[in-house]
Design a protein that fits this description.
The protein has helices at residues 32-43, 77-84, 122-134, 151-157, 172-181, 222-226, 245-257; strands spanning 18-20, 24-30, 49-55, 71-75, 92-97, 112-116, 139-142, 166-168, 187-191, 198-199, 209-212, 230-233. The termini are far apart. The protein has 7 helices and 12 strands. Helix content is 26%, strand content 21%. A 7-stranded parallel β-sheet has the order 8-7-6-11-9-12-10. The protein has a 5-stranded mixed β-sheet with strand order 1-2-5-3-4. It has 263 residues and is an alpha/beta fold. The protein is elongated and about 60 Å long.
Length: 263
């Protein structure tokens, strides 16, 4: 059976990765800014962009931006929305090959590391990856949870999924122990609202630091907290009990990346 190049773009509302007969596992990026960034990565040889799906208007100035070998597909807006399975107003989508994961051994070289043992929401993962990349962390280690290359994760991350190393592992705690033992002075810090947690405003991260964020509903449990060297918390006001994990992660990663500003 011949492959229809439009197939990767069908029924995208809750889409994960797609399988291509020639290029293997692929992902979808959507929207002008994200697609243009993807095309730039493709032209630089960092990613393999397979095709771009565009409305006829959006396709007019794309030809010179396409990486070599990228197919340009065009369709009227209403037809593109019907294909995607939801009202699609962004004009552009692209299908690219999922790149090879970072080498497992390179994890221990990270000095600023975000660790996500378990998440449930794709958008939270995307937001955390975006903050980690924007704030200059060396990488993210993620356990079971939403896929890094799902449509929603890619969209919310705004390209961070291909800009920052992400190590996906079944047991982050085992790998985290290896990371800590690789260099003396390494510190594993839990984000947790506990009575013994240090106020994040006073927190001075170690030169080599891993920040561990728990899942959205329960946070880190007692056993997981015991595996960390200490805990930090963001003080709450106005009767609020906590922040969304992505918001809290951005604040704490800013603290990791910009300690000198607080001296």
């Amino acid at each position: 059976m011949s492959f229809d190049p439009w197939d990767p773009y069908r029924d995208l509302r809750f889409a994960g990765t797609r399988e291509h007969p020639e290029h293997g596992t692929c992902f979808i990026a959507e929207g002008r800014i994200l697609v243009e960034d993807l095309l730039a990565a493709g032209r630089a040889g960092r990613l393999k962009v397979i095709s771009v799906a565009a409305t006829t208007t959006a396709a007019l100035d794309l030809q010179e931006r396409l990486p070599a070998g990228t197919e340009l597909l065009t369709m009227e807006p209403a037809a593109l929305s019907e294909l995607a399975g939801f009202p699609f107003h962004r004009g552009l989508m692209a299908c690219a090959q999922v790149p090879a994961p970072p080498p497992a051994e390179s994890l221990c070289a990270a000095k600023r590391l975000l660790v996500l043992p378990r998440l449930y929401d794709s958008e939270n993962l995307g937001l955390l990856l975006r903050s980690a990349a924007a704030l200059g962390l060396d990488g993210v280690m993620a356990g079971p949870g939403p896929g890094q290359w799902t449509r929603r994760t890619v969209r919310v991350s705004m390209g961070a999924v291909w800009r920052i190393p992400v190590w996906r592992v079944e047991d982050p705690w085992e790998r985290l122990a290896d990371w800590r033992s690789a260099e003396s002075g390494s510190e594993v810090v839990a984000a947790a609202l506990t009575e013994v947690a240090e106020d994040a405003r006073l927190w001075r991260p170690a030169d080599r630091c891993a920040l561990v964020m728990g899942p959205e509903d329960t946070g880190l449990d007692a056993e997981q907290l015991a595996r960390c060297d200490r805990a930090v918390a963001i003080a709450m006001a106005s009767g609020m009990d906590s922040l969304n994990v992505a918001a809290a992660g951005a604040i704490l990663m800013f603290r990791m990346a910009h300690v000198p500003q607080f001296d």
